Every structure is written in C-alpha cells, then in structure tokens.
Structure to design on (280 residues):
C-alpha cells in the first residue's frame, strides 16, 4: 500500500490558494456545511482542519494587506470609487484559477469596493480552477442562480491546455472557444439581462512552462494563448486587453514559476488594469 503523501506548508498554501471546494459545481448544486469543506481540504492535504483554517486566514490577510496598500494610492482609490457599480448590483466573476485565486484580482476587487465604502454592490466569485469555456457553459445554471447584473469574464487559458506527452490534445479549439464565448455572451445578456465585460487571458511564459512541466503530460503553448486573446478582441474590440497590457509591462515578474499563473504582483497588475478600464 502506498503511504499517504506529505505536504510542505508551501505546497498546502499553493493548493489552497486555488482550490475552493465550495465553488465546485457539484457542491454548489448540493451544498454542504462549511465545516465539511474544511474537513475535505484537510483530508486532501493530510493535515488537521485547523491547519487549513490558518492557511486560508493567512491568504485572506495577504489580500487585505495588498488592498490596503493599493487603496492608499490616490489614483487607484479614485478609480475604485468611480467604478460603475451601484448598491443593488450583483457582480459575478467568471473564470479559471486566475479568478479563483484567494489572493487574486476578483477577491481584491471585492475588498477594494468594500474598503472604499462607495457602493454596497454584492460581488460573487464563480472562478473555478481548471475551467474551460465549455466548463463554464455547462454550469450556466449556477451563473443564473447568482442573478448577476454585471459579469466580468476572463476565460481561455485552459481552453489551450494540451494533454499527452506526444500528441498534445488540446482541450478546446479556437473555433470552439469563440462559439462558447458567443453562447455565454448571448445567455448572460439575453436570458439574464446582465451586462458583460470580456477580459483577455494574460500571456504565458513558454520558457518557464517548458521547464516547469517537463515531467508532466500537460502543456500550454504561448502562441495558442495569443489566438484566444485574438478571439476575445474579435468578439469585443473594447474588451479589457490584459494580454497586451502584460506584454507592455514585461511579464517576467508578473508570472509564477509555472509560467501560467500570475504572481501576487501580477494579480495586482490585473486588478489595476481592470479597475482603470471599468472606471474610464
């Protein structure tokens, strides 16, 4: 029998940063008490539940500190106060791990709006790690249940994720990505009567990817992420173009060692870009 795996604190932190079992579609459709989620995560990471609570608390504190620092900047605070959200708005974030990140842009956005105190809009993070555009389309019932008035949608990074050591079979083709995004736009604006802001996925770092995933049957290709960004721009020329913004800023310090996920400074950059665009 294989002995249970052990995890270092850093590994647990990274796992919990992106893994939110309460957002998993099955457990959203069939909710369980919060304590069950804590126990589930503790079982996954072979530790006590209080360790999970401590690490999650640390991640939340890190987000709060980042927001406090950013809100101390007059320009950023003014942009947050100028956001077009009202007291009765329900703002939903749709995305993958970049959005699900407990220290990520959407969590910081919610904290920034609360910090500013200019709006009592409700913000709901529906980001789920690993999601493709097809996955989000499949859980449209959960989007509908959130009753959004505005949706911030950043998808596509996992559409180009390829599996296999030799074949490299891509999750979703560019044509399918466009079809799925068109469907989501139609459902959100038509069926739900909500407004939508499309956001291109940030670029990836091919050199880091090739090194980090060398022993893994999973790959990303920078040129295919470029294709997805082009699809989003085609659907909405006035989208929030993170892909271009990252390239202008130089993405080396904005991406983690895996070359795919933004660092905490990268998430701050994403937040600034989105806030400045929405407040424009």
């Amino acid at each position: 029998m294989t002995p249970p795996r052990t995890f270092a604190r850093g590994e647990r932190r990274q796992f919990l940063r992106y893994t939110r079992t309460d957002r998993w579609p099955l457990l959203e459709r069939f909710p369980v008490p919060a304590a069950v989620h804590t126990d589930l995560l503790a079982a996954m990471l072979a530790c006590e539940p209080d360790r999970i609570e401590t690490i999650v608390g640390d991640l939340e504190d890190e987000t709060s500190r980042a927001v406090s620092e950013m809100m101390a900047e007059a320009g950023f605070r003014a942009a947050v106060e100028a956001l077009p959200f009202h007291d009765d708005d329900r703002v939903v974030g749709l995305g993958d791990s970049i959005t699900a990140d407990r220290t990520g842009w959407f969590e910081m956005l919610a904290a920034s709006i609360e910090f500013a105190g200019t709006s009592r809009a409700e913000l709901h993070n529906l980001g789920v790690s690993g999601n493709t555009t097809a996955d989000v389309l499949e859980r449209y019932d959960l989007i509908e249940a959130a009753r959004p008035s505005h949706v911030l949608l950043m998808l596509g990074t996992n559409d180009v994720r390829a599996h296999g050591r030799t074949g490299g079979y891509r999750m979703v083709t560019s044509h399918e990505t466009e079809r799925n995004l068109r469907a989501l736009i139609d459902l959100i604006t038509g069926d739900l009567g909500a407004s939508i802001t499309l956001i291109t996925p940030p670029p990836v770092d091919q050199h880091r990817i090739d090194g980090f995933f060398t022993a893994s049957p999973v790959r990303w290709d920078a040129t295919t992420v470029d294709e997805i960004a082009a699809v989003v721009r085609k659907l909405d020329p006035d989208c929030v173009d993170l892909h271009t913004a990252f390239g202008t800023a130089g993405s080396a310090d904005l991406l983690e060692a895996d070359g795919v996920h933004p660092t905490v400074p990268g998430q701050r950059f994403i937040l600034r870009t989105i806030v400045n665009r929405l407040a424009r």
Remarks:
- Residues 187 and 219 are 31 Å apart (CA to CA).
- The beta strands are 90-95, 122-125, 150-154, 162-163, 169-170, 195-199, 218-219.
- The radius of gyration is 18 Å.
